[in-house]
Amino acid sequence: GLLLSWIFKVDIFLSSIICDVFTRNAIKVYMHHDIYDAPLVNDRKQKELFDRVIKYDYLFLPNKKSIKMFKNFFIKNNIESNSSLPELLESGYLKLDFLIKKKKTYNNNIKKSIIIAPTNFLAFPDLVFHIYLETLIDKLITNIDSDIIYRPHPSNRDHPDTLKILQKFENSKRFYYDESVDYFENYMKSFCMITDLSGTAYTYAFFTKQPVIFFSKNENLIKKLEYNELSYFKDRNKVGIVVENINEIINNISNIENVTKKTNNSINLLERDVFYISKSKNRIKDLISKLLI
Question: Among 7, 37, 219, 232, which one is most buried in terms of CB atoms within 10 A?
C-alpha cells in the first residue's frame, strides 16, 4: 500500500474497497460494491468508516437508494460539520450488467438448488442467523429434496465455525460448499436463496428473478437501530419473504411456487430503480470522462 504514494502521473485512482493510501495527485473514486443500501458497518465502526470514506473525492453509487443512504451516513457522522465530503454520483451496477449479459447465453434452466448466503457474522453478530446455520442445513437436508449450496461470506471462509459446518456435512450427497469467486453457475441453478441481511440478496433477485427468504432473528433490533428505514429492509417482501424461524423456512420452500408467483412482478418493478441497468459501463465511462475535463 505504501508504494502507491510513489506511483506518479495517475489521473484517477478507482477502487471497489475502501483504501487509505492513494497514488499522488490523483482524483480518488470509490465504487460501492453493494447494489442496495444494506447496512455498511455496525454502529461501533461507523465513525471509523466515515473517517476513511471522506478521503475520497467521489463515490460511484449504484442507484438513488444508495445515494440516500450515504447522505444520511454523512449527516450522522459529520458531527462537527467541518469535513470535506465526497460527491455522490449515480453510476449503475456493473456486476449486475455483467451477470445479465452472461445469462443470455446460458442454456441450463434446471433449478434444483437452494443457496444459503449469509452476511459476515462477525460484523453483525446480533442480526445474523449464524448460530442456527447447522440446524438449518440439517433440517433442509432432512425435509427438502434439493441440493443445498452453502456460500459463506468471504470474510468468514476460514473461520472455525465455517470449517465446522463444512466438516459436518461434507459427506452429504446434497450438500455443496461454495467458495468460488464466480457465483454465476450456482445462482442460476437455484430456485431460492436464504440470507439474513446480505447485499447479495438483491443482486440474486434481480439477476435470477427467483425469491429470497430472509431469515430474521431480531426484527426488534432492526427497528431499534432504525435499519427499517433503509430500502433494503422495506423492500424485502418485494423480492421474497421474511421469516423468523426454521419451520417457516421449510414451509415456504415446500410451497416455493406460491412465493415465486407473489414476487415475480414486484422484482421486475423494483429492478427499474436500478436506473442504469445494462448501461452502467457507458455511464461510468461518461462520469470518468467528465472528471478528467
Answer: 37
What cell does 67 get?
A: 445515494
Cα 256 versus chain centre, distance:
22
DSSP element (H, E) containing 243 = strand 240-243
CB 199 within 8 A of CB 235: no
Query: 14-34: b or e for each residue (b if 16 or more CB lie within 10 Å)?
Result: beeeeeeebbeebbbbbbbeb
> Which helix or strand (DSSP H or E) is residue 69 part of?
helix 64-77
- Is residue 29 within 8 Å of residue 291, measured between CB atoms? yes
Task: Give the integer Cα–Cα distance in Å for 53 and 51.
Answer: 6
AA identity, residue 189: K
Of 184, 185, 175, 183, give the one whose Cα is nearest residue 153: 183
> H or E element: which one contains 213?
strand 212-215
pLDDT digits (tens, 9 = 90+) for 64-78: 999 999 999 999 998
Give the CA angle between residues 263, 265, 269 to the nearest 5°: 110
- Which residue type sits at 141? I
Separation of alpha carbons 186 and 116, rounded Å: 11
H-type alpha helices, the chain? 46-53, 64-77, 94-103, 133-143, 160-169, 184-188, 200-208, 219-224, 231-234, 236-239, 246-254, 256-271, 280-291
pLDDT tens per residue across span 198-249:
999 999 999 999 999 999 999 999 999 999 999 999 999 999 999 999 999 9
Residue 171 CB partners (closer than 8 Å, separation 6+): none
Task: Record the cell numbers describing residue 247, joined without a space.
Answer: 419451520
Exposure string over 242-264, b if 16+ CB within 10 A, otherwise e: ebeebeebbebbeebeebbeebe
Q: Are 31 and 11 in contact (CB under 8 A)?
A: no
Which amino acid does the sequence have at 18? I
pTM of structure: 0.93
| Among 106, 129, 98, residue whose Cα is nearest residue 116 | 129
What is the Cα gyration radius of the chain? 20
